[in-house]
């Protein structure tokens, strides 16, 4: 099964996650969602699996720079629309293998995920 990793190339956490996979000889496909974008369908599927609150990066500068109106009264639909408009709002990395999904990078979680 193909391992896919989604994120932003220059992100330090992404670099750690990719180095982790490479050090273990795990082949993966990398999707830079700042360059390639991400669809509402994919975000909806991820949100169904892990919750939109897990996907939305509310601690980064991109979220803090949003207008007060955008940050208030968040719903799944509003969060997905914001993540499409501002891909930096998607927590990274997102690691998938088939229907399995892991959000964020923690070496112990990656070890369990890749077996």
In terms of DSSP E residues, the strand content is: 15-25%
Could you say which overall geometry the principal axes of the C-alpha atoms support? Answer: globular
Number of beta-strand segments? 4
What is the N-to-C order of secondary-structure elements (H for helix, E for strand)?
A: EHEHHHHHEEH
Task: Briefly note the structural class of the backbone.
Answer: alpha+beta
Query: How does the major sheet shape up?
Result: 4 strands, mixed
Task: Kindly report how far apart the N and C termini lie.
Answer: 13 Å
Mean pLDDT: 95
* Major sheet: arrangement of strands: 2-1-3-4
Helix content: 40-55%
Rg, Å, rounded:
14 Å
Contiguous low-pLDDT stretches (5 residues minimum) are none
Would you kindly provide a brief summary of this structure?
The protein is an alpha+beta fold and 115 residues long. 47% of the residues lie in helices and 16% in strands. It starts with a strand and ends with a helix.
Structural commentary:
With 115 residues, the protein is α+β, with helices and mostly antiparallel strands. 47% of the residues lie in helices and 16% in strands. It contains seven helices and four strands, in the order βαβαααααββα. It has helices at residues 12-23, 40-50, 52-55, 61-65, 68-71, 76-85, 107-114; strands at residues 3-7, 28-32, 94-97, 100-103. It has a four-stranded mixed sheet, with helices on both faces. A hairpin with a 2-residue loop joins strand 3 (94-97) and strand 4. The radius of gyration is 14 Å and the shape is globular. It starts with a strand and ends with a helix.
